[in-house]
Amino acid sequence: MRNQRVVEKNAGDQRNGVLWREVDDECGVPLVLENTAEAVNVGGPIDTEGMSTPFPPGTEQHHLLDDVVSRLSATEQRIRELEARKLSLLAEARGLADAERARMPADSRSSEMVHRAVAMEVGVALGLADRSAEQLIERASRICTDFPEAHDAMAAGRIGLAHACAVADAR
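^ that's the sequence the OP posted. Answer follows.
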């Protein structure tokens, strides 16, 4: 137990017949209880001498992993931006459907078909069933209209679609 000091506070404390003591390492790890019968390092420095470390800093493998993670992060941010753009377009399609429906007589059976026609067009474009497209359009419209901050965060790449949907579904 290198780099640790034992604080004999409440020395002799018995729990389940085992003597316990508190351990505080010099690195500032909070006091924790340690079983003295079976001394185990529970948060202090670990002696890694003789152990290999995956992707050690400064190695080619470390730089390769760093590059992959960096490109992955940039790709994820771009996907989030594109998902926000997709939501905007779906909400725009909903707006067009609403405007077309408002143009038709209220008692017209044709007015009911406007949203279904838009959903069908969107479904074909996205390879979705029209009912799935309807749900997607509704969700996009809700996020863009009722939760513009979530949509803006998506557009900036700070949150993803699942996060924006969770925000919308929570209310």
